[in-house]
Amino acid sequence: VVQAVTSRTPPSDRIFVAPTAPYLYYLTDRLDVSKYDYLDPVYTSASVDREIAATITDQRPKVIVLADTTFADSGKTGSQLAPQTYRVIDAEYNPVQSIGKWTILVPRSR
Questions:
Q1: Are strands 14-18 and 64-67 parallel, antiparallel or unpaired?
Q2: pTM, full prediction
């Protein structure tokens, strides 16, 4: 996953990782495009979801990394926690690589 990100972006680019793997920002030496390092059943409200979705639309990170993860405490997936964010990602990004539970996505051409 680290190589998939670093081969597609210079260190100055921001990326987005969801629903939860904030260590990837450190391992890739890339900053988060959002001020939220991960989605969480406790704080990911509808307003947080809207804010992340707007940030992705406005900033268009060159790489998004999604994990196929379910939160043990709530049983929810990232797309259930942040449906608007995932709709934006589905509409504006194409998957280019799968690595285990991870999917690497890049922006669609406009």
A1: parallel
A2: 0.94
